[in-house]
């Protein structure tokens, strides 16, 4: 799930800066700050409920970033979370902030055994990867056969000609997304959109603002900060203009076998470290 330099600026460099800002502001800013505006409580609560997460279950967060979304699940349902991200600094930042297990890996080649996790989610990740079908097949492979659930937040293009998005992003249309889900052997259990859910409460917004303000104070003169801001502005603009829609999906495994693909290495989850 690597990409152009702008994606490294957005997802890797800023992740490390964010962890430092959270450390300065305090633990009460950790979840909101680590979500960095991409995860909101209503959406995370929707996934926790729809995936049926229960205490003691295992959840893999693919493309976890600094780990705010996974920590929300861990604290609300006492699930055992494992974080995975292709960016080294993001994994290191997640460990600094939350002390969770994290592994640097490509989403299309997950280093976990088949049927390892009770649930898996990938939130806002699909559009950033070059091998979208491969990612979906891997999510299916590592989730528990028969009982496993998968959560996806996908930014779906409302037409075949979406322009002006952030570098390194490819937004699937509804038709393409459904075809990929079918090919991966996944079926939709529940669906909603970000627009249908309440926005974050003011306290959450304020925590995000404070974290972002500290990052800007310390790194606003760094061109990588501006690059990351440009990426964030591009996706916000697309959402605001209706070019893409944030779609939340709760998925289960269908009887269809996924097409061959992926590296099925048998690596135990306990070996996952940055």
From TrEMBL:
The keyword Transport does not apply. It is an enzyme of class 2 (transferase). InterPro entries: Erg6_SMT_methyltransf (IPR050447), Methyltransf_11 (IPR013216), SAM-dependent_MTases_sf (IPR029063). Residues 60-146 form the Methyltransferase type domain. It holds the Pfam family Methyltransf_11. One of its GO terms (molecular function) is methyltransferase activity. This is Class I SAM-dependent methyltransferase. It comes from Williamsia deligens.
